[in-house]
Amino acid sequence: MKHSIDPAVTGTAKTTSPPAATSRDIDAAQRVFQLEAEALRAMGDSLDQRFVKAINLIDIAAGRAAVTGMGKSGHIARKISSTLSSTGTPSFYVHPGEASHGDLGMITHDDVVIALSNSGETPELNDVIDYCRRFSVPLIAITGRTQSTLAENSDCTLLLPAVDEACTMGLAPTTSTTAMLALGDALAIALLDRRGFTAEDFQVLHPGGQLGHNLLRVADLMHHKTDLPLIDAESMVGDAILIMTTKGFGCAGVVDAAGQLAGIITDGDLRRHMSDTLLQLTCGHIMTPNPKTIRAQALASEALGLMNASQITSLFVAEDRKPTGILHIHDCLRAGIA
Length: 338
Known about the structure:
The protein is an alpha/beta fold. Helices cover 44% and strands 16% of the residues. The protein has 16 helices and 12 strands. The protein has helices at residues 7-10, 23-46, 49-60, 72-86, 96-99, 126-134, 149-152, 175-195, 199-205, 209-214, 218-221, 237-247, 267-272, 283-286, 300-310, 329-334; strands at residues 65-69, 91-94, 112-117, 139-143, 156-159, 230-232, 251-255, 261-266, 288-289, 293-294, 314-319, 322-328. The longest helix has 24 residues, at 23-46. The protein is elongated, with a radius of gyration of 31 Å.
């Protein structure tokens, strides 16, 4: 006799197919996008010297940017702090509740505080505000109300646009937090541009993940010094074959008397000149002149693109036509360049 098993007892749930999307669902989503897009446009149109003042306060601070907020604003504050740090502006997040129990000590006189609160009346921020005023720590407010405790006690107020929350009840932070996030991005990128933060700087702060891989330079991956498969133009082809075999790149760079890269010998060059007299020829006789090269400071992704476009597997690195390294396509693939 079979017994039915109650899913509530076993912890399993019945599998049901999700309902098909309705026009009401799509209408709700489109309303969210429309309201949040309106907020971003309004905020962009309203930017003025207060934004410049905020940038100045962060830029001249000898310390770091301490970003704080409670609830949903706190989640946005964490992201803003992370974006600032990754783009050249040292930053950290301070939880306002923990700040009241000792973490105010994280904030020094050299720092600048960025506080997020749509209402400007978040009670957990009061101790942070008092601390900034007591010790003359610059305070930047991101809020939706100029007539608020946060705005009235800040050195600079960045005002959020007066646009309804996307929530149909007007309660859940949606439009306001999107505006906060975008404003944080704007601060970070404006500071990045002002400080001349480069792709090289970005790579230093992002060594892991696909971002770090995409910013690797040829110099980071290339083989050099004794690994280079080089031979002079007057040497015999037999010597070139030996170098191609021992170095393992499937080619040999041919250099002239001045040490400049005059040509390259590949397996294809050997096949094209295959005859009984091949080993009696010089490297200069069978080489392909003016081979493609790349700079050591070029992105590795650029080198991979050049190799793919030219249908080659190795690429010499040269400065003023003098070879300084060689890059194989497998070096790029092993590093995750794609």
